[in-house]
Write a structure and sequence with these properties.
The chain is mainly alpha-helical and 371 residues long. The protein is 54% helix and 7% strand. The strands form two sheets. Strands 1-2-3 form a three-stranded antiparallel beta sheet, covered by helices on one side. Strand 4 and strand 5 form a beta hairpin.
Length: 371
């Protein structure tokens, strides 16, 4: 049904039926962007709500009112970094993210600043895609690897997404930015922001729905074990494979198997599962797929799947231990080279982090010796 057909069925412009007692409303915001929202109310109440939005947009556009958000007026990139740093340092202190993750963001901010020192005093609304493309050119001229540049761009995307979430800008200048071509590109794994969103979704499932409870257990189990999609289904993982302190995962791709230590987290998940069934997860593949996708959608995570959870488990394992051989064994890869090819950008970024730390320690020694 097109918009002209819809308009004939509603008394109020911009208000269209969307199921029982639900209405989808459309309007143009103060910055010219088209917005929509689904409201559960009467048609008249939806029209009243919409008129209020239009009135506010008009006042902001004409300068009679400031946009909503944490800050009034234009915000510079340096201030965005200050806000981002403050929030992330709190998360490090609370144990939500590791300090190493924050250091990677800091390195990315400084690398962007190094390309154009004046960028820190530039308003967020004035930072354009061309600034990012110039950053790519700068890195290329300095003979930096495409993998390292892509890692920085990925982190900058997180920083600017933070600005969008805080309503400092409407759209990130990196939204349409593509990564540089690489021979080996990092696999898709969840970034810190996405993991936080996922954990929030898992903590807020409907406990009365078995479908959601199973989705939570599946996601946690995949993250704890790094299992392939089919390796935990009952045709491969039986209760007899679950020992007192370990469990055996048989590969869904080869005839090999690997042993996973049962941690407290895994033990807690297993305690929720029915031992009368053949295995901890006696669900068909498509049932697993639907449950996992439902939770990911609830967490507003795009372009992710069961495979993404496995790759995320590998990324977290490597960031925790900094041992690519151990991570390769954890994931059951045929060789370390396979693991390295999957996480080449992540490995490079952590090498950079350690180089910075090493330089600081060495500088401190020199400063002491000179006193």
């Amino acid at each position: 049904m097109n918009q002209n057909q819809q308009s004939k069925q509603t008394k109020y412009p911009g208000v269209y039926p969307y199921g029982d007692e639900k209405w989808r409303v459309f309007w143009y915001d103060w910055d010219g962007s088209k917005k929509s929202k689904i409201l559960q109310c009467t048609q008249k109440q939806a029209a009243t709500w919409l008129n209020g939005k239009k009135h506010t947009a008009h006042k902001i556009k004409t300068g009679l009112e400031q946009p909503s958000g944490l800050n009034k007026g234009p915000v510079k990139f340096s201030k965005l970094w200050g806000m981002f740093s403050k929030d992330y340092k709190l998360r490090v202190k609370a144990g939500t993210i590791k300090s190493g993750s924050f250091e990677i963001y800091k390195f990315s901010y400084l690398a962007f600043k190094d390309c154009n020192p004046g960028i820190v005093n530039k308003r967020l609304t004035n930072i354009k895609e061309s600034d990012i493309e110039n950053f790519k050119i700068h890195r290329k001229e300095k003979n930096y690897s495409n993998d390292g540049t892509n890692t920085i761009i990925r982190n900058l995307k997180t920083i600017f997404k933070y600005a969008v979430d805080k309503e400092l800008i409407h759209k990130s200048p990196l939204k349409s930015i593509s990564y540089l071509p690489t021979h080996n590109r990092d696999v898709r794994f969840l970034m810190d922001e996405e993991i936080n969103s996922l954990m929030e979704a898992l903590n807020n499932i409907d406990e009365n729905r078995a479908f959601e409870r199973e989705g939570r257990d599946l996601i946690k189990f995949y993250l704890h074990t790094g299992a392939r999609a089919k390796e935990i289904l009952s045709d491969l993982l039986k209760w007899k494979d679950v020992q007192e302190d370990s469990l055996i995962l048989s590969s869904s791709k080869t005839e090999s198997s690997r042993t996973i230590i049962i941690t407290d987290g895994i033990r807690k998940i297993l305690s929720n599962r029915d031992r009368k069934k053949p295995g901890p997860f006696s669900i068909g593949y498509y049932g697993v797929y639907n449950r996992v996708k439902y939770i990911l959608k609830k967490a507003k995570i795009e372009n992710a799947s069961i495979q993404t959870l496995r790759k995320t488990a590998g990324a977290i394992h490597y960031k925790t231990h900094r041992d690519i051989f151990a991570t390769s064994k954890f994931l059951g890869h045929s060789s370390v080279k396979v693991t390295e090819s999957h996480y080449v950008g992540l490995i490079q970024s952590l090498k950079t982090e350690y180089a910075i730390k090493y330089d600081k320690v060495l500088s401190d020694y020199f400063n002491i010796s000179e006193k």
